[in-house]
Amino acid sequence: MLTRLEVQGFKNLLDVRVDFGPFTCIAGANGIGKSNVFDVIDFLSHLASGTLMEAAQQIRGPADGRSGDPRDLFWDGYGDHEREIHIAVEMIVPATVEDDLGSPAPATTTFLRYELGLGYTRPDGEASVGRLALLSEKLVHINRGEAAEHLKFNHSVKKFRNAVVLGRRSGGPYLSTGAHESGLVINVHGDGGSSGRPQPRAAARAGRTVLSTITTNDHPTILAARREMQSWRRLALEPSALRTPDGFTDPRSLGSDGRHLAAALFRIAQDNVSSGVAPDADAVYARVAGRLADLGDLGVESLSVEPDQVREVLTLFLEERGGLRLPARALSEGTLRFLALCVLLEDPTVTGLICMEEPENGIHPANLEAMLDLVRDLAVDPEEPPDADNPFRQVIINTHSPGVVQLCSREDILVADNRLQTAPDGTTTRALSLLPLARTWRAREATVTATDADLVVYATAPPGVQIKLPMDLVG
Q1: Alpha-carbon gap, residue 292 to 312, rounded angstroms
Q2: Are 214 and 26 in contact (CB under 8 A)?
Q3: 327 shares a domain with 192
Q4: How many CA atoms lie within 13 A of 83 on its CB side?
Q5: Which among 21, 82, 318, 353 is least buried, having the fewest CB atoms inside 10 angstroms?
Q6: Phi, psi of 136 (to 5 degrees)
Q7: Can you spell out the DSSP letters for 319-360?
Q8: What's residue 68's pLDDT?
Q9: What is the pLDDT of residue 61?
Q10: Are residues 100 and 50 part of one domain?
């Protein structure tokens, strides 16, 4: 779970510091740059697996393409000045993960803060765009006694916090940055605390974060942080991917674009039967069909995934109340998106952070409430302990839809706005700010908050849907 994000110098995130809960809605106008919040989270996830330049190539360029030019990642990246990006995250990581060899790696502590500094090295020849450089890296623990200061969203201390914030460490950091006669080094410290000599890694020649190089259970807490960041996904459901048939040998987990929908649901049904959670696969399909029936304009009778032994493919079928039987490829875009989220809801193996852009896309306004209820249900309930029935998932969405904003709790809303900030050169410029609403949990320590007047633009209900406004906006 990503509980806090601090960013300086990444795209239009000149200086953003924000706390997250289990569910967050970022509301802002189109083109304001709120997707860059997802970009920096995506960037961190890719950095946990690949090189600095590979991660950069995975991030959207200025025209929604992937340019691979590292300067696109920096604030005013093409200006004639030094460029730096500083990112810090606070996160709750899994108590035990598997290393690359399949061995268990129990973390010493599960509440961590990771800090990263990146710079830009100019090209040393023609036909080059330069490269990213590792400037600093740090990973430190947050003990249970300090957790109350950092976990600011409303939650149960006994059932939730004490179940996810585990372990204690009396020593120093797990990763630290230091100076060496040969240059800057990133020190890797053991889980045993202050005992043992740190292992220095030369930052200048790294080409990747040191955290991304930890693959075995020799450093289990660093590995747990890496696994947590690797689990952060940006869900961008594409109709063509959702309609693609699955072969028997295809992966059986839902892809970030919605691919392998039938295979994922088939696997979930089989796992539920083998573990005794459901008496048969039909019971799982019935649960998904029941949730899908929340779409008021869709008369769902049943749902199933059928294996074709001859063609060796899995096909998802929906049967309507009138008897019409439809394969997934014949379903509407909105139905497929909703169905994909229903499948995710049934999958306890999907944990970590899910970022979703404009979940209302393809959904009739009258079905917005059903969609938002489903998205919120994907997130962990912080009043209960995480378990198979309450998977440790977190959801962040962004939207410019009045209907979505009106259906969200004020506690969950962040208002995205371009506000005046001071640039590194001392000039004043406009950059993205994420502001909590006044009198919400994020506002307790915020220096600037949004007011209900900032939500007036969202106060007009879309055609065809009756939406209740928060009492603060009525009148």
Answers
A1: 27
A2: no
A3: no
A4: 21
A5: 82
A6: -165, 155
A7: EETTS-EEEGGGS-HHHHHHHHHHHHHH-TT--EEEEEE-TT
A8: 74
A9: 72
A10: yes
The C-alpha atoms of residue 200 and residue 138 are separated, in whole angstroms, by: 13
One domain, residues 190 and 302: no
- In one-letter notation, the amino acid at residue 312 is E
- Find all residues with CB under 8 Å of 475, minimum gap 6, and list them: none
Strand order in the sheet with 413-422: 233-235, 352-357, 393-399, 23-27, 413-422, 428-436
Q: What's the Rg (C-alpha) of the chain?
A: 23
**Distance separating alpha carbons of residues 292 and 296, to the nearest angstrom:** 9
**310 assigned to some structural domain:** yes
Contact 419, 430 (CB under 8 A): yes
- CA 464 from chain centre, in angstroms, equals 31
> Coil, helix or strand for 412?
helix
pLDDT, tens digit (0-9, with 9 covering 90-100), for 61-112 = 766 555 678 999 999 877 777 889 999 999 999 999 999 999 999 999 999 9
Q: Which of 115, 228, 108 is nearest to 170 (CA)?
A: 108
Same domain, 111 and 253: no
Distance CA 356, CA 336 (A): 15
The contacts of residue 418 (CB under 8 Å, 6+ apart) are 12, 32, 33, 430, 431, 432, 433
One-character DSSP codes across 57-124: HTS--TTSS----GGGGBTTTTSSS--EEEEEEEEE--SEEE-TTS-EEE-SBSEEEEEEEEEEEPPS
Residues 395 and 282 in one domain: yes
CA angle (390, 393, 395) in 5-degree steps: 125
Buried b (16+ CB within 10 A) or exposed e, 173-191: bbbbbeeeeeebbbbbbbb
Residue 218 within any structural domain of the chain: yes
CB atoms within 10 A of CB 16: 20
* Model pLDDT for residues 28-68, shown as the tens digit of each residue: 988 899 999 999 999 999 999 999 999 999 997 766 555 67
CA–CA dist 143, 8 (Å, integer) = 26
- What's the pLDDT score for residue 64? 57
Tokens of 420: 């005046």
Domain containing 99: what range? 2-231
pTM higher than the cut 0.70: yes
457 in any annotated domain? no
SS3 272: helix
Give CA–CA dist 189/182, Å, rounded. 19
